[in-house]
Design goal:
alpha/beta, Rossmann fold, seven-stranded mixed β-sheet, 29% helix, S-adenosyl-L-methionine, tRNA (guanine-N(7)-)-methyltransferase
């Protein structure tokens, strides 16, 4: 989910009279929806300091400044296996993972504030303290905030499939993103993907099965991860006749 960053101006460059004055934006893999919250979400958002990690920004509200850093051991008060979820939605998978692995650290990169507020409500209700949220474009956050070799797992569950051919470039799963993921995984780390669109599953395999930096752990679809809950979103897809495909990749050694 690449950022909404605009390319920074170059003060030393000569003026180009016919240049488009509008800032250029990177292609993104998500559409940011509105931020209206219900009262319980607003209360959770107002008390977000317990969960949210603030980061240095670029020009856009969900961007991450080049060179931004987070001291994760300081954030969690410990060094532990680390899981990042990109596009965590309302937090069902994140919460389930944090509950199942209290000795692991979990970080969610999400851009939709009401969804993050709902995640915080669930974390608080279960008394979970091993999860943090970052309001940021997932690709930029992964690149800037996660050191190479740090991750035990990366999760991208049900990324936007961008059905139309002209929008295919917006898909999160691309060769360049695969290389970034591989660089952030530890030696035994894995990237878990789930999608309920057959075409997107095929796209993932076309991009990643022969990727120079990744290996398909199961040489095909993966079994469902036990900790991944059956969400309302997934149930809607199943009722609509869509089959869920899980995939798991590890760093090529």
């Amino acid at each position: 989910m690449s950022s909404h960053d605009a390319d920074p101006p170059n003060p030393g460059a000569p003026a180009v009279p016919d240049a488009d004055p509008r800032p250029r934006r990177r292609v993104v893999s998500y559409v940011r929806r509105g931020d209206r919250m219900n009262p319980s979400q607003q209360r959770a958002w107002d008390e977000r300091d317990a969960w949210m990690v603030e980061v240095a920004r670029g020009e856009q509200s969900t961007s991450v400044a080049e060179g931004a850093r987070v001291d994760w051991p300081e954030q969690f008060g410990r060094v532990a296996p680390m899981v990042v979820e990109i596009g965590s939605g309302t937090g069902d998978a994140l919460v389930a993972g944090a509950r199942a692995h209290p000795d692991w650290n979990f970080v969610a990169f999400e851009v939709f504030r009401p969804a993050m507020a709902s995640t915080m409500i669930k974390l608080r209700a279960e008394g979970l303290t091993n999860a943090r949220l970052v309001e940021a474009d997932g690709v930029a956050a992964l690149r800037e905030l996660i050191e190479p070799g740090l991750l035990t797992e990366l999760w991208t569950y049900f990324p936007d499939p961008w059905h139309k051919t002209r929008h295919a470039k917006r898909r999160l799963v691309q060769p360049e993103f695969g290389a970034l993921v591989a660089s952030r995984l530890g030696a035994d780390g894995v990237w878990r993907i789930a999608t309920d669109w057959a075409e997107y599953a095929e796209h993932c395999r076309e991009v990643l099965d022969d990727h120079p930096d990744l290996v398909n752990v199961h040489d095909g679809p993966a079994p469902r991860t036990p900790e991944r809950p059956l969400t309302k979103y997934e149930q809607r897809g199943i009722r609509a006749g869509r089959e869920v495909t899980d995939l798991t990749y590890r760093k090529r050694t």
